[in-house]
Amino acid sequence: MIRKYNSRLSLIQRYAASRQGTRLLYLVAIILTMLLGLASRRYVSLLPHWLAVHAGDALWAAMIYWGIRLLSWPRSCWVAGIGAGVFSYLIEFSQLYQADWINHIRHTTLGALILGKGFLVADLLRYTAGIGIAMALDVVINWVCQSANIIHRQER
After folding, report:
1. Do 74 and 143 meet the contact criterion of CB atoms below 8 Å apart?
2. Which pTM was predicted?
3. How many domains would you assign to the chain?
4. How many CB atoms lie within 10 A of CB 46?
5. Is 81:135 a contact under the CB 8 Å cutoff?
6. Residues of the domain holding 37
């Protein structure tokens, strides 16, 4: 049973170690994060109040992190974290600009999801938390994949 479990981890690790496998894992992370973010907005009444208030923005920033990891995979998670932070902060500060043409975009569903509606300092903290959690998950997932490879090598 242990051998079967370790061989499964080894398959995941070997696939994740390939460039295509890593990109696929980041794409899956993006899709799952998007679904969780949309669900956090749709099912607000089912979530604890603090989670309903903060989850959407944190998940949005985490999705940006996964997207940057997808596009810049060989670079460190710190590069993606800083890039996601800069991008998220720029989007938030862009909400201080209130021209008619951009407000028309913001009033669409997609525009509201991407650009937001109004500047809030609390959103900056939510973005930072979401990126930090995504970075921690990224490190843990990479560590598990590397550990699985070590376990598999020791079995041979």
Report:
1. no
2. 0.78
3. 1
4. 10
5. yes
6. 2-155
